[in-house]
Specification:
This protein is mainly alpha-helical. The longest helix is centred in the C-terminal third of the chain and has 28 residues, at 74-101. The model has no long low-confidence stretch (mean pLDDT 81). It has one domain. The protein is built from five helices and no strands.
Amino acid sequence: MDDDTVSLTALTLIISRDCRYMCVNKYKPLITQLTLSLYLMTKCQLKLHHSVTSLVQTLDYIEIAQERHSVYRTLDHLTLQFTKRKVMVSLASLYRYEVNTF
């Protein structure tokens, strides 16, 4: 895990009393393989400067994954939301860069 996911997990468990309760009594504080794969794939795409089309397709995958997870999978939802935000910020900066170059 990298700094972002560790921080997200720690803050969630520290701040959210409901999440702590659910993790202790019903669910373990796990991130599914699907969520982690999407997060790592997105990090690679951003580092390797993939095309806008590729990033938009990744956003679609994130949306589908969010619909598939139970509402009780708090860490999955937060990680997917965080990943989505990273893509959106990157796309916004790309768009700003392209607009300013013309």
